[in-house]
Specification:
The chain is mainly α. It has two domains: 384 residues, Growth Hormone, Chain: A, CATH 1.20.1250.20; 48 residues. Helix content is 83%, strand content 0%. The protein contains 19 helices and no strands.
Length: 485
């Protein structure tokens, strides 16, 4: 009985994760069809996670209040309809709207799925295994998205990347109605005002770092709304989110771990997909296939994690995952971007990030009472989607800045061609072919490589800092326990 349940829950998580990254290698074909501008291209990729992030907490707690199966099936339906909307979009505004609705459906699916694990697997050992499976499925989906996108684009075009969703969603709805038990509605009232404050606050923070540069105003507005949300939760007899969750040992580090892992996994994934195609000259399918190294390593890490968690505990496993990811990312940062070195880096970082993600998820779900599992799962998935959105924008902006600074246009290249090349490496390659400027192509590849190196170095440094903070936090906790004894 448990395997069908995991299959139902995993199918939804897989599609949600795939759609966060499926356009990474499909974007060039989409650009040739719909002709979006540079800013619109970034929004097409980023609007999905940036829409989902602020809705995760309201929808997660909605499942606690009105029944998790009901919210999950509704999320499946919204996701399926939005997928059709994306596939049939006649222009950029229609595609952006459909991608935003797709994010709403994903925001219903993700936290409710994880909270159902808390309900369906009360035994901690079995729950850890189930979490490992679902975390592995989600991580695999994120990495498999570009692979699937490359295959579908070469065969049928970018619209096919969305047409694969509805049949799977129909099967998932039928299976959910058959196998998932009805969750009794919770006795706690659902605070709509708190939901609006939480959604608006997270949305402001997300768009502050978004591709249009919302900046100080969006960030300040988000901070004010989150402050009002926290104040309301402290005064409420039935809060939407029990803030005591964040005072439990390991929870702040777990939230940071999810945010860091997903921002790196998705943000660097976009850059590497571009590097493999522009610099190494691989086709979309061949480039995506190279990223399968992360998929395999992530799956291995997810399978290994339950045994490691049982023996060493969440904190140690998370610290080890941070450290391994940091060391692995130092390889491309130091210039190891050839096939062999890059393969080793992808394998090590994928395994380490899977350990960190699984241990972080287990910490969050185990810290919450059964009646508040949806809220805890929503916190984890907010970090998941916010990390994906911020990773795309922050690492993309960093790589673009390095590219612009390092690009040296050869003498003799017309100014109009140079301006095209400055927009990005893909545009530079096209301009170099059109005007037979081989020197410009080489300069663009070198600048693109520098952007990937710097981004990998920053990500590796963040993982190293996270590992050190985790070690110091554990030492402080042990010292406090010793002092009380």
């Amino acid at each position: 009985m448990r395997r069908p349940l995991l299959a139902v829950l995993g199918a939804g998580l897989f599609l949600v994760a795939v759609d966060a990254t499926v356009l990474h290698v499909a974007l060039p074909d989409l650009v040739r069809d719909l002709r979006p501008g540079a800013a619109a291209q970034v929004w097409i990729v980023a609007i999905y996670p940036l829409t989902a992030a602020p809705l995760l907490l309201p929808f997660g707690t909605l499942g606690d209040r009105f029944g998790r199966r009901r919210v999950l099936v509704t999320g499946y339906a919204v996701f399926g309809v939005a997928s059709l909307g994306c596939a049939l979009a006649p222009d950029v505004p229609a595609l952006l709207a459909a991608r935003a609705v797709l994010g709403c459906g994903g925001a219903m699916i993700m936290p409710v799925t994880m909270s159902l694990l808390r309900e369906l697997f009360p035994d901690q050992r079995r729950r850890r295994r189930a979490i490992a499976v679902c975390s592995g499925v989600a991580g695999t989906g994120s990495v498999f998205g570009p692979v699937l996108g490359g295959v579908l684009v070469e065969a049928w075009g970018w619209r096919a990347t969305f047409l694969v969703n509805p049949p799977v969603i129909l099967a998932a709805v039928a299976a959910a109605l058959r196998w998932l038990p009805r969750s009794p509605p919770g006795p706690r009232p659902w605070d709509a005002l708190s939901a609006v404050l939480a959604a608006g606050g997270v949305l402001g923070i997300a768009f502050a770092a978004g591709p249009s540069g919302g900046g100080l105003f969006a960030g300040a507005a988000g901070g004010v709304l989150l402050g009002l949300f926290v104040r309301r939760q402290r005064r409420s007899a039935a809060p939407l989110l029990d803030l005591a969750l964040f005072r439990r040992p390991g929870v702040p580090g777990a939230v940071g771990g999810v945010l860091l892992v997903m921002s790196t996994l998705v943000g660097l994934g976009v850059l590497l997909a571009q590097y493999l195609q522009v610099v190494l000259g691989l086709s979309p399918t061949a480039a995506a296939a190279r990223l399968l190294l992360v998929l395999g390593a992530s799956a291995a890490g997810s399978v290994t994690a339950p045994a490691l968690l049982g023996r060493f505990g969440n904190a140690r496993v998370r610290t080890a995952g941070f450290a391994l990811a940091g060391v692995s990312l130092a390889v491309p940062a130091a210039g190891g971007l050839t096939s062999w070195w890059l393969g080793a880096a992808l394998t090590g970082s994928g395994f380490g990030m899977a350990l960190a993600l699984t241990s972080s998820t287990d910490t969050l779900l185990s810290a919450a009472p059964a009646g508040q599992a949806g809220g805890a799962a929503a916190v984890e998935k907010t970090g998941y989607e916010l990390g994906a959105g911020l990773g795309t924008t922050v690492f993309g902006s960093l790589a673009a800045a390095v590219y612009a600074a390092r690009l040296v246009v050869p003498p003799g290249v017309p100014a109009s061609v140079a301006r095209v090349a400055e927009a990005g490496p893909v545009q530079a390659e096209a301009a170099a072919r059109e005007f037979a400027a081989a020197g410009l192509s080489a300069a663009a590849r070198a600048a693109c490589t520098a952007g990937v190196q710097v981004s990998a170095g920053v990500a590796g440094g963040l993982f190293a800092v996270a590992a050190m903070v985790s070690v110091l936090s554990r030492a402080k906790t042990r010292g406090a326990k010793t002092a009380t004894v």
